[in-house]
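## Example pair
The file below holds two records. Each record gives the amino-acid sequence first, followed by its structure token line.
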Amino acid sequence: MELKGIVNLPLEIIFEIFAVLPLEHLFHLSRVNKAFHELLHDPAAASFWKAAWSRAERLPALPPHLSIPSYASLLFSTDCRACGISGNFAVLTGLFTRYCDECMEIRLVMKDSYDFKVPGGRSCVNSNHLNDRYWKQWMLLPEAEYVQRRWEALNSEKEKQDYLAERTEFVLQCLKLAWPLQHWFDTAEQRRVAALHALKVERLNGVKQRLRAEGWEVADLNGCGLELIRDVYKPEWFIGERGLEAVNAAHDGPYNSPLTEWQAIHTDAVKILEAHRIKRLQDEEDRRIQSNLTRLRSIIERYQRSFFAPGAGLGYFPTVFEVATMPAIQPFVEQNPLFDVGDPAAEQEVAALLPGLNQELTAGATHTLAAMVREALGTNTASLSDTDILELATSYFQCLTCGQGHLLRWRQLFRHSCSKRTGHYSTWGRNDYKAAVARHAFRFSNGRSVRVNFVRGVASRRAIVASCGFDPDRATFTDMDTCGVRLRCLRCRSYPEKQVVLDWEGAILHDASRHGGCPKKAASHWERIADENAARVCELQDALRCEPAETDRGTCSWCGCHTYRNPKSWHNDDDLMTISVVEDHLRDRHKKVDAEEGVDYVVDWAPRQAITIFKPSLKENKTATSKVKAGLGFFADF
């Protein structure tokens, strides 16, 4: 039977229905039409409201100034209680009412600003805080005016005092009821939100079930963002026996079409799922490659440990990026199912390729560096092989990350992290294999793309070699290291009673750090000192290099980790490896307790220290005598 037929029922049956209805249903029934409203608000219908109130559970206590129908309206209706306009207006529990914004402007007044003529009148009216920036107390203007009129109408002082006491007691009673009322509204809101959330979850699961039946995978449905589809939670749609195939409905906005609800949801869901599937597959492929690169890195480390035999020093040190991008290795990392699962045979096959690849990479790096030297030195070196030209004493390289004061020979440059380029990986696409390799290489090694400079300082190096009595086009590092020639700089400020003396390598570093390292003319500003004094300088410098100093750099023979002589702020802790730090590194990472030089680590000696020659007249000078005692100088005529 439809609801409109209930008005045709006999009154006896209607009254029987009224007698068993819960309070909330009785209130809503009183608003169905005018007839029911008049019937249920008739004084004779008070028994129905009282019976419904007596059966109600967990409702806040009835305020003394409200009837049951009025209180039911406050509890179960969100409309304005003054003008009756429909809306979801907040309840003012301290005032036991609910107003729209327009009525609040008319019917509320700030408690502190109202001109009370009643002594202590502010304690005789109910008040409520509003969520405004002042957090002031507001009261009902009709209630304040009513209290003032009643007080003024009384004649005797005793009647007025009794009335004020009565009102104060009334306000305290209302205040005690206001807190439980607020708690009831808060609890009701929590239940409403929980029920709405449960309905949303039910509807979303229904959508996922339909999509799962169409063949979409669970991995695509979870976390793809289907809850962002606007119409999934549309109130008039439901999940029941008919599922989401509800009747055709007019849709607001872009869905103003004859499509069914499920078709409207399906259109957006497929777009989201397709984008999510593409991203998921890309992420899975990226994780697979990253896992293979980690496996490749372990294989390279094992090879490096066997490659750096005790006492062999360090050769070329390939990075993960360099090895992974070789045509022979790339298929294993990119598309080999056995390598994906860590098959020992596949790993051994990769390990067997590494010696040949290392030789190929070494030859390529050697040729690249030799080409830089040939371009800078000209055609005089055309007859020399790549190795021979790199062994020339003028073939020093400069790392622009470490600064001008750090020059590298070609074998040092091979293992220098700053020279390990990964390329401009940010320009590659997401699906590019090299981009995935570059991301991995950047994480596991120094992946900064830095430049290595050779041209700067060539003229200065040639002039220094010539000052030592050698041909700059033929002299090698071995020739210069074994010669006993020592030099002093003529461009620096000279003192008649002392000379600062350097070996040939110290002179090159001196020019690079003090004089720019690139004189345009080949004319030398270095002077060779007397042979007898040079011999004394050599003795002192050799004595200072008998034991590695804390200023020297150590390089781990097991993994190639090294440091810089002049660390900069952008170098990480693994790079700051002095001799004491390299021993800690070997103990902590490689479990080598008694590390040996030349076996477990290689010392990259710092340049020989400068030696100062003082004339005998300075034997009483404290600075001169302290340097002589420290082995950094001696007294002699020059």
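Second record, same layout:
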Amino acid sequence: MTESIVSLLVSPSKLERDKGILLFEELIKSEDEKVVLVEQMLDDLVLKTECTWEEKHGFLLGKKSLVGLKKIRKDDQFVEHCQVSAVKYLQDEEVRVRGAAENDGAVKEKEEVGKLFDKLAGITPRDAAQVFHDTAGWKNLETSMKCLQHMVEGCGKGFESEFSAELFNLLITCLDHTNRFVRETGYYVCATLVSACSGQNTEDNPLITQDAMNVDEIAAEALDEDLYSPILIFGNKLSIHLAKGLSDNWSQVRLASTTATRVFLLSLTPEQRKQFYPILLPRLCLNRYYLAEGVRLYSQRTWSEVVGAEGCTLVKDFLKEVVEYYIEATQADNHAVREAACQCIAELAKKINLEALQPYVQHLLRTLIECFKDDSWPVRDMACVAAGSFVCCYPEESKTGLDILLPLFWSNIADPISSVRQGAAIALANTIRAYGSEILPDIITKLETGLENLTSQPVESEKYGDLDTSPANFSVAKRIRDNDVELHEDQQMYSCGSLAPKMGRGGGGGCTDSKFRKVSEPWELADGCVHLVGEIATIKECEEELDKLLSAVARVQEHKHYVNHLHLFQTVCVRFAGIAKAVNKKILKPHLEEFFDIIFYSLESENGLAEYAAEDCLNTLSTVLGPNILRGRIENYNPSYLSKLDNIREPMDGPGRPFGSRKPCGVLSTSPSRPFSDGDMMVGMESGGGGASSPRSIPGSGRSYQAPLGGTPT
């Protein structure tokens, strides 16, 4: 049995190593004499001249399992031997060995802290270009930092006496390190240190709760009284470096810094937090919309735990710092940061008191106009949506920029990216809500022209001159030419993560730079116009114009000579279903027959998305009008369509969907990649009493609506 346990511990397979640990721990609990034999066999493994990493790793795993038993028996010699072995293997070439050593290195936590400090402080970093690039680990330094983290966890509250300026300066050096793995580990160590030192109750200490004094003054007086908190002593400098981590280009570093920030803020009283809010609050607020899901969800939860229902009040109190940081973030090299900044600016227009935000409106609008020129289409998309939100909430202040904004909105209506066209339609609809009859006639004229220009659509697009028309995923516009084998043979390989931070806002590489932009085609403009008609249908004041627009939309079925006509028909089906739910039946019924041909043409197509859109449209019409009324109208128009209607699969989505079917991925606005529906929840914020919206959504009604920042994300 002893040999089988050892063989499992040194196995290259993790599953077998885990099994070996379980068997060895069961043997230890039984206090079997064979434990000594296993221990001796493990010692013999590492005494050999040529020792494999599996043997070193198994040795460390076995020693770690024995620690509890040896401590009970007060075997100090074993603990010292285990510590020496752990320090030895902290510099091993194999990362799994170093990982096991860092855990064993915390056996005598407090006694060995000073030695590890000396080891870390003695590391002399060389030029990064000569050692590792930013996507590789920093070997011993990173591992030693993790070992320190385990030591702090082992010491717990007892480590507070070891928290010195020397240790803090060492941590700051790691937080400023050129390697992202070292920075990431450094922030996790900070979180552990703060957690270990936050047990002291400072609530009743008058030296700490004086708002008029800065942290250094608080620390000085607290030291005189020998009653101090290391968190407050170093809080000012720590918050500066936490802010840098919250703005780091690498998502893993952002997540680690957010973890440390949460622990740091929750360790303080609400009054003590206020001195750190000017630098931390804006960055934490922006990260609720960051592209990386882990950062976004953790930041939302952190926001909820730290500010609770006071988010709106706090953002308003520190509005100057928030606005300045959002504007700064729109200049970042990382396109994901620029996109999140535009989303946050749109949120300000919707959530913050109008009078409080008014002094910043012009500056924010100029920033959004500048973002329209961005080479990354998600940034252009969100800049458009945010600008429309500002126009709706601040019509008088936005009038001066209207001559610039309207052409930009129309440019996005014809953008090659479908979701950009949808965003532009929402922005123009909000502009109509703001200015009504002042701009409506001009918009109606351009709408009709855009739909009529479909006759000029070429039969075929030029090879390599167009983008793939499939739904764009994760901000990547895929070229049709990407299927050319020659483009993928004998080429230099790159890490996707290493390229992402190098994507400048003015181009210079990456999957969303200016090389992927092209002149739009007439069908794309018509597609954007259909989206706009769908948005106009939700504006009650536009009901008279809607009658003429619906006929213009229905006429797109006359043009099927181009490759992407089914994509346009899909949009028509999706939008007509939305229009049916939004408008009065008196407006809908006169145009019903005009859309039957395009719906059933899409239903019979071999395009899955168009087929589903047509099927869903029929389901919606059946719900709005009634199944029998719809069937009768179809029978009167074209009896042959009844057989196709009867072939629609049985409902799968529950009551109210008589022709329901399974939904495929990527269906326009119903796709998760484009959550513009009014029923979605605003992530990380309470939505108040009205309809909620997603992070990409914008206010759909007048200026009176105000919702608080804060609350639990759902």
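Notes on the second record: The longest helix spans residues 53-72. The chain is about 60% helix and 0% strand.
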